């Protein structure tokens, strides 16, 4: 690594592991247990501490804080960490806290956009290709699957899950699991339809979208008990991969679904 890529006002601990072509801007602070992969850019006034492992080609904007101790009264200084994958954009004033004894880590995947003022609390798991809009707040232990979109100013309750290809509208309050492929919104959040725009953008075929429309009606519109709806899906769509994953997601729910 060329020292010319580190601004002279930045404080980078000599024990930190810094890859090739990493840029670290003015007044940023990088702690001794931090690892930063090749090609990552750290703008000015960023603080990264604790055991934080950041992959390649990320862009981290000014005033971000990563790896500080969690806001969990049960935390007692355990050895935990933050892991961030590759090709992510993390915008201004984002806070990402390290894990607790639940998962021992907070994790963000690859190719995810984390917009300004987002808070990702301890033990959250964020997948690949997600979009977390401005000031969305993720309480501890939240899991967000791949390709999910979370609207701005939305708050997600601890231990809640957001399914793959789901979208949550802005200013929503989410305290139950958001079913894959669905569009949910409101306070409290309810599923209002399938995420049709997102699915089309990601190349879902008309046949796939038609099937998911039928699934939506069975779960949310026919006034069936949830168990009965799931039994119908398991019988009639047992060979459909999208539906199988959706049913598996619901069956694993501990908080119930946004219905």
From TrEMBL:
Molecular function as annotated in GO: acyl-[acyl-carrier-protein]-UDP-N-acetylglucosamine O-acyltransferase activity
Localization: Cytoplasm
The EC number(s) this enzyme carries: 2.3.1.129
Reaction(s) this enzyme catalyzes, per UniProt: a (3R)-hydroxyacyl-[ACP] + UDP-N-acetyl-alpha-D-glucosamine = a UDP-3-O-[(3R)-3-hydroxyacyl]-N-acetyl-alpha-D-glucosamine + holo-[ACP]
Assembly and interaction partners: Homotrimer.
Protein name, as recorded: Acyl-[acyl-carrier-protein]--UDP-N-acetylglucosamine O-acyltransferase
Family the UniProt entry places it in: Belongs to the transferase hexapeptide repeat family. LpxA subfamily.
Protein's gene: lpxA
Pfam families per record: Acetyltransf_11, Hexapep
Origin: domain of life: Bacteria
Keyword check for Cytoplasm: yes
Keywords from the named record: Acyltransferase, Cytoplasm, Lipid A biosynthesis, Lipid biosynthesis, Lipid metabolism, Repeat, Transferase
Gene Ontology terms: biological process: lipid A biosynthetic process
GO CC aspect terms: cytoplasm; membrane
Purpose of the protein: Involved in the biosynthesis of lipid A, a phosphorylated glycolipid that anchors the lipopolysaccharide to the outer membrane of the cell.
Membrane spanning residue stretches: none
UniProt pathway annotation: Glycolipid biosynthesis; lipid IV(A) biosynthesis; lipid IV(A) from (3R)-3-hydroxytetradecanoyl-[acyl-carrier-protein] and UDP-N-acetyl-alpha-D-glucosamine: step 1/6
Record flagged with keyword Lipid metabolism: yes
InterPro entries: Acetyltransf_C, Acetyltransf_C_sf, Hexapep, Lipid_A_LpxA, Trimer_LpxA-like_sf
Residue ranges occupied by any UDP N-acetylglucosamine O-acyltransferase C-terminal domain in the UniProt entry: 177-257
Major subcellular location class: cytoplasm
